[in-house]
């Protein structure tokens, strides 16, 4: 690593940035300096204010107080155009690409005066290809973005910034969607960039990669800068303590006592692709009582299809799904519920809860038919059920009559978790159950899933967080391009081994050997 | 059958097709602009009424025909601005606002008409656009009288279609509009304002809708009467779907629709027309539009962000 | 500028903003009156007087409100499940059509009570099926129901026109396209003898209460709201979204058709193309002003009917065109949805 000379030019300064959203103080007087040729990691757990800070820097939001200056010149607040013009580029966590346009069209968007005839796509493509070669960002300029993989889309996002000659690049959780190998390639690209004098802010909550890529680490907690260190002079333990505010005890999950009866089995299952997301291809999987089975892998590789299948939303186009050894007569969400499958959806806002329904109405979403007599809904029964969940799952709310959209993500997830677990499921589908939750809520969810396992449930945990999958699961599979790897027991596979499966390489080898 | 062939072989039939299609082309292009940017504009029916009235009223009050068209365009833009302000920065339901704008624009036109002409039962006439033969081309057999002896506003409809197609496909503005209807965050992240683009598209689109209405009073007929738009706006919304949100296909859809309409008018005067109630023929355009919607339903080319309000920083 | 959600809006906001919307509507109205050379206060006074200034006026308003309660309920029910039924006009006419097809002689000799039940049920069935078609196109093929219901309005009106000039034409009508009159036993009687208000109004009130009970007390009501607020989450939870939308369509279409039935059986006695001056479309305004609340629909329908009746009477007296009523209602609608948005969100910087 090339440590920047102490006297390197300062290219960016954030001073006293404060931003409030309703009652939440997302950023509280944050100061940050970035020097030329430097990679600064912005570390913090979910909700620490990292993304808000970067959105203020890029002009998506205006700060309530504080200033942003690039190379000594202040940026006008709330104008992405001004940030772009000043040489700031941002790679958003949720890509900002239009699927109906080509790579080149997405990249030139907004770079020419609106009324000037012609798009200059031919010239732009030449330049894009040159940049792609220089920085190791292979992508086809004429390809339609809708047909690209997640990794390719991220490269387009980076090329957008490079095409505009960005001097400062912000990457928001860039590795969340990458395999370990792809992440390595990204880090190599970033090193090439700083070698040419670009400066980078790298947002992450993963300690390992922060130490691997950054020169300097700035730690954020509850909207404040709580620490700063040269990467060379610190270690994971110290950073973790800063990030969470207390020494983290590595969650240690006792292995399952013994695997019980087989509850659910997939035999050579295929499903239809949904839009850009692949369907399943020849998936075999067995869920046994009293075990946690994790599906690791980069999102968008068929996990959604697997979850939809188990949740009862889609039917296999080939192969068989068996519950308790028999193929169910019909397969729909209600049939899945009736078969004792509890489902924690991936997207709690879109699939798990109805934002404008209150807690009671949300609590009975999967149970209301039980509370119905002669077409009438028993609101008393509904309130009792909701009260039981709120109490048992520590849902913090002033009242059960509040629209659920007013709850924090963690509390919303606790209600959904309670709704699922209180029904006493034998099989639990937990799809990214801790995404976006803080450490406390994550530990709570983990604890409840393990308790359910110990009580005899079969848990299917789908997670893009490799550490979570390896830490909790008694058995881990990897999903890539709609296919599922063989299962690995505790300690049988390292993160690097799984990475080979995540990239799809191991599948090819397996086919070769066979 | 022979009757139908006779009709199809006559230049007057094809001239009628072009004439019927022209206002639909204006309004369809207007709706298409709005929808490509991500806004469903159900104000179209009322904006067409307001445009028909405003264009006619201006000319009746003494302006030139082209000034009348400009007035209609401006009135359309004004209602478009109202629609856009409510649906874009404030993110209100595009359904509710659109229907509200249709009611408001229609009622405003009728109210003003009654204010200006309290007692009149037969609407006063104006001198409308006259056919303008294109030298040389209008003498071609069949094609000449069909295509090249139309009013200037008819030519303008096709020119507008070309212009809209070029702007959408070949200018940075068009690129930005297409992106705004697909993924507004892509536009915002490249430093452009989604709000400004959408407001602009809805205003320009509404202006075109109003010109489509004004075509009825200034080129197709020579006066303003109530109910004259008579569902054309709703048909244009179906045409946008039928044309898969592409200007060229939308124009083809409008021509196809106009051909059916012209055909049914002529069939009413044949033996078939004598045998069947005339309402059957009048139903045809509406039934065809529904059929077109059903046929196109499987093609997923809908702008992904259509009817999704964009709120900055929300993703 | 961004919109920021307000967790618990203040009472001032909840009351003040809708009041401001009404104020804005009145201001627009005043402008229109001034443009017509009238005196705003006097004209507003005439509208109020025309709507509620006498027993006759009040009954006229309630009569006019009757079909609006039905169409308002139809729209409120459908919009609640996010089924955009803009076709209440067509459903209304089909309901009226069913009533005259069966009620003008086909069932002669039946007792009045049986006739009433059969006619109302037939009307509801006709309207329900008319909306089921676009609802199925929506759930099965993804065809936008806004456009199909709008287009069907024209088809149905032409269909009714065809029948009125053909098989249903009253031979004694001297060439006018109108149906024969309902049998006297098939008519809805007046609530109080001598007062021009028929049982259709009472039926509308009963319908409003029943719809309210369905929405708040039954499982179907819960499913309807869940589908309307987030159909994806509803489907995930196992709610049969397609079936709920189809059932909603049947209910909504049936309610709109009752408007046609009640107009024919209660007020007019026969069917003409002048049966509805856009009651179906006005139902949308009624429902929106009532915030889709079935009991609110009654109040909103009476208010809207009052504006129309009052404006008609004012127009005769003061010479301001009666289209002012439509402008006022459109303005009220737009101002109200804006005001209600601001009870939930506030503007904040950046």
Describe, in plain words, how this protein is organized in 3D.
Chain A is of the alpha/beta class and 514 residues long. Chain A is 34% helix and 23% strand. Chain A has 18 helices and 22 strands. Chain A starts with 9 loop residues before the first strand and ends with a helix. Mean pLDDT of chain A is 90; it is low at 1-5. Chain B has a single domain, classed as ABC transporter involved in vitamin B12 uptake, BtuC (Orthogonal Bundle), CATH 1.10.3470.10. Chain B contains 14 helices and two strands, in the order αααααβαβαααααααα. The longest helix of chain B is centred in the middle third of the chain and has 27 residues, at 194-220. The mean pLDDT of chain B is 91. Chain C is an all-alpha fold. Chain C has 13 helices and two strands; from the N terminus they run E-H-H-H-H-H-H-H-H-H-H-H-H-H-E. Chain C is globular and about 70 Å long. The N and C termini of chain C lie close together (5 Å). Classes of the chains: A alpha/beta (514), B mainly alpha (315), C mainly alpha (350).
Helix and strand layout, with pairings?
The complex is a heterotrimer of chains A (514), B (315) and C (350).
Chain A: E1 10-21, E2 24-35, E3 39-43, H1 50-58, E4 65-70, E5 73-74, H2 80-85, E6 88-91, H3 103-108, H4 121-135, H5 150-163, E7 168-172, H6 180-195, E8 199-204, H7 207-213, E9 216-221, E10 224-230, H8 236-244, E11 262-270, E12 283-288, E13 292-296, H9 303-311, E14 318-323, H10 333-338, E15 341-344, H11 348-352, H12 359-363, E16 372-373, E17 376-377, H13 379-392, H14 409-422, E18 427-431, H15 439-454, E19 458-462, H16 466-472, E20 475-480, E21 483-484, E22 488-489, H17 495-502, H18 505-513
Parallel strand pairs in A: 3-8, 3-9, 6-7, 7-8, 13-19, 13-20, 15-18, 18-19
Antiparallel strand pairs in A: 1-2, 1-4, 4-5, 9-10, 11-12, 11-14, 16-17, 20-21, 20-22
Chain B: H1 2-8, H2 11-36, H3 44-60, H4 65-87, H5 94-116, E1 132-133, H6 143-147, E2 149-150, H7 152-170, H8 172-182, H9 184-189, H10 194-220, H11 232-242, H12 247-267, H13 271-275, H14 278-296
Antiparallel strand pairs in B: 1-2
Helix pairs in contact in B: 2-7, 2-10, 2-11, 2-12, 3-4, 3-5, 3-10, 3-11, 4-5, 4-10, 7-8, 11-12, 11-14, 12-14
Chain C: E1 2-5, H1 11-35, H2 40-52, H3 55-80, H4 88-103, H5 112-141, H6 145-165, H7 199-217, H8 219-229, H9 231-236, H10 241-268, H11 279-289, H12 294-318, H13 324-344, E2 345-348
Antiparallel strand pairs in C: 1-2
Helix pairs in contact in C: 1-2, 1-13, 2-3, 2-12, 3-7, 3-10, 3-11, 3-12, 4-5, 4-6, 4-10, 4-11, 5-10, 7-8, 7-10, 7-12, 8-10, 11-12, 12-13
């Amino acid at each position: 690593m090339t440590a920047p000379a102490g006297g390197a030019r300062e290219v960016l300064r954030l001073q006293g940035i404060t931003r409030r959203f309703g009652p939440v103080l997302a950023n509280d007087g944050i100061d940050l300096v970035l020097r030329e040729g430097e990679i600064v990691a912005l570390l913090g757990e979910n909700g620490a204010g990292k993304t808000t800070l970067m959105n203020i820097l890029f002009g998506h939001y205006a700060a309530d107080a504080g200033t942003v200056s690039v190379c000594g010149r202040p940026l006008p607040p709330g104008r992405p155009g001004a940030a772009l013009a000043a040489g700031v580029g941002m790679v958003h966590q949720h890509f900002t690409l239009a699927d109906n346009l080509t790579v080149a069209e997405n990249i030139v968007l907004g770079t020419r005066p609106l009324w000037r005839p012609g798009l200059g796509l031919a010239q732009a493509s030449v330049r894009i290809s040159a940049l792609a070669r220089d920085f190791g960002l292979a992508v086809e300029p004429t390809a339609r973005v809708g047909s690209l993989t997640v990794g390719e889309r991220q490269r387009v996002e980076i090329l957008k910034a490079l095409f505009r000659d960005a001097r400062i690049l912000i990457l928001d959780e860039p590795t969340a969607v990458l395999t370990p190998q792809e992440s390595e390639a990204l880090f190599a690209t970033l090193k090439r960039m700083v070698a040419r004098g670009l400066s980078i802010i790298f947002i992450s909550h993963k300690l390992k990669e922060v130490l691997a890529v950054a020169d300097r680490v700035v730690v954020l907690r509850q909207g404040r800068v709580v620490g700063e260190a040269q990467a060379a002079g610190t270690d994971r333990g110290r950073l973790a303590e800063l990030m969470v505010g207390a020494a983290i005890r590595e969650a240690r999950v006792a292995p399952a006592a013994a695997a019980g009866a087989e509850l659910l089995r997939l035999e050579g299952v295929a499903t239809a692709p949904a839009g850009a997301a692949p369907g399943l291809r020849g998936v075999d999987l067995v869920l046994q009582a009293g075990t946690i089975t994790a599906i690791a892998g980069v999102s968008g590789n068929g996990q959604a299809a697997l979850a939809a299948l188990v949740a009862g939303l889609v039917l296999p186009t080939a192969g068989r799904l068996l519950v308790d050894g028999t193929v169910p007569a019909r397969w729909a969400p209600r049939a899945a519920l009736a078969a004792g499958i509890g489902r924690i959806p991936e997207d709690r806002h879109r699939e798990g809860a109805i934002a404008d329904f209150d807690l009671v109405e949300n609590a009975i979403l999967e149970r209301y038919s039980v509370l119905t007599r002669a077409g009438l809904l028993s609101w008393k029964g509904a309130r009792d059920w909701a009260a039981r969940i709120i109490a048992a799952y520590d849902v913090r709310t002033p009242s059960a009559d509040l629209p659920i959209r007013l709850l924090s993500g963690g509390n919303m997830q606790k209600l959904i978790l309670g709704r699922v677990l209180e029904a006493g499921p034998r099989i639990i589908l937990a799809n990214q159950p801790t995404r976006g939750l803080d450490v406390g809520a994550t530990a709570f969810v983990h604890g409840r899933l393990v308790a359910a396992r110990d009580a005899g449930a079969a848990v299917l945990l789908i997670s893009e967080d490799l550490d979570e999958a390896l830490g909790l699961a008694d058995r881990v599979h990897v999903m890539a391009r709609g296919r599922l790897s063989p299962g690995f027991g505790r300690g049988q596979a390292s993160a690097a081994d799984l990475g080979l499966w995540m990239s799809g390489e191991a599948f090819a080898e397996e086919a070769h050997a066979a | 059958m022979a009757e139908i062939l006779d009709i199809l072989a006559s230049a007057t039939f094809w001239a009628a097709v072009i004439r019927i299609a022209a206002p639909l082309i204006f309004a369809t292009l207007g709706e298409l602009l709005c929808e490509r940017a991500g806004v469903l504009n159900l104000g179209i029916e009322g904006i067409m009424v307001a445009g028909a009235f405003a264009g006619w009223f201006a000319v009746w009050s003494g302006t030139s025909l082209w000034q009348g068209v400009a007035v209609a365009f401006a009135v359309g833009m004004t209602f478009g601005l109202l629609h856009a302000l409510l649906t874009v920065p404030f993110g209100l339901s595009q359904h509710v606002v659109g229907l509200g704008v249709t009611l408001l624009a229609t009622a405003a036109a009728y109210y003003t008409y009654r204010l200006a002409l309290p007692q009149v039962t037969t609407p006063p006439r104006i001198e409308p656009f006259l056919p303008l033969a294109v030298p040389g081309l209008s003498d071609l057999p069949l094609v000449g009288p069909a295509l090249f002896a139309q009013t200037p506003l008819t030519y303008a409809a096709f020119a507008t279609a070309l212009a809209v197609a070029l702007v959408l496909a070949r200018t940075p503005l068009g690129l930005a509009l297409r992106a705004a209807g697909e993924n507004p965050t892509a536009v915002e992240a490249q430093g452009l304002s989604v709000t400004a683009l959408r407001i602009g598209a809805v205003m320009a689109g509404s202006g075109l809708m109003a010109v489509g209405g004004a075509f009825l009073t200034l080129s197709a007929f020579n006066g303003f009467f109530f109910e004259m738009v008579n569902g054309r706006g709703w048909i244009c919304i179906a045409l946008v779907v039928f044309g898969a949100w592409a200007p060229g296909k939308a124009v083809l859809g409008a021509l196809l629709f106009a051909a059916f309409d012209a055909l049914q008018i002529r069939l009413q005067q044949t033996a078939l027309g004598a045998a069947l109630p005339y309402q059957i023929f009048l139903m045809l355009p509406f039934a065809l539009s529904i059929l077109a919607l059903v046929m196109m339903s499987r093609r997923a080319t809908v702008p992904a962000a259509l009817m999704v309000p964009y709120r900055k920083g929300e993703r | 500028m961004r919109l920021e959600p307000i967790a618990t809006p203040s009472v001032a906001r909840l009351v003040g903003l809708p009041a401001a919307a009404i104020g804005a509507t009145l201001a627009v109205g005043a402008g229109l009156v001034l443009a017509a050379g009238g005196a705003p206060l006097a004209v507003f006074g005439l509208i109020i007087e025309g709507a509620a200034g006498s027993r006759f006026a009040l009954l006229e308003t309630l009569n006019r409100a009757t079909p609006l309660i039905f169409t308002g309920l139809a729209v409120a029910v459908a919009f609640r499940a996010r089924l955009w039924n803009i076709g209440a006009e067509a459903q209304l006419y089909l309901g009226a059509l069913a009533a005259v097809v069966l009620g003008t002689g086909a069932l002669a000799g039946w007792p009045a009570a049986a006739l009433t039940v059969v006619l109302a049920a037939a009307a509801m069935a006709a309207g329900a099926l008319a909306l089921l078609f676009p609802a199925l196109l929506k759930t099965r093929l993804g065809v936008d129901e806004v456009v199909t219901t709008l287009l069907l309005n024209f088809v149905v009106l032409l269909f009714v026109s065809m029948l009125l000039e053909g098989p249903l034409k009253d031979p004694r009508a001297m060439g006018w396209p109108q149906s024969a009159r309902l049998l006297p036993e098939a008519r809805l009687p007046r609530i109080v003898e001598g007062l021009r208000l028929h049982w259709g109004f009472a039926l509308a009130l009963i319908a409003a209460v029943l719809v309210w009970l369905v929405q708040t007390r039954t499982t179907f009501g819960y499913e309807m709201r869940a589908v309307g607020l987030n159909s994806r989450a509803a489907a995930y939870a196992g709610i049969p979204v397609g079936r709920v939308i189809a059932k909603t369509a049947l209910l909504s279409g049936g309610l709109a058709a009752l408007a046609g039935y009640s107009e024919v059986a209660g007020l007019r006695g026969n069917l003409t193309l002048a049966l509805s001056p856009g009651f179906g479309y006005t139902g949308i305004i009624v429902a929106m002003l009532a915030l889709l609340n079935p009991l609110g629909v009654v109040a909103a329908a009476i208010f809207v009917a009052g504006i129309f009746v009052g404006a008609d009477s004012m127009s005769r007296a003061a010479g301001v065109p009666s289209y002012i009523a439509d402008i006022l209602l459109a303005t009220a609608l737009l101002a109200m949805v804006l005001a209600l948005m601001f009870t939930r969100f506030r503007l904040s910087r950046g």
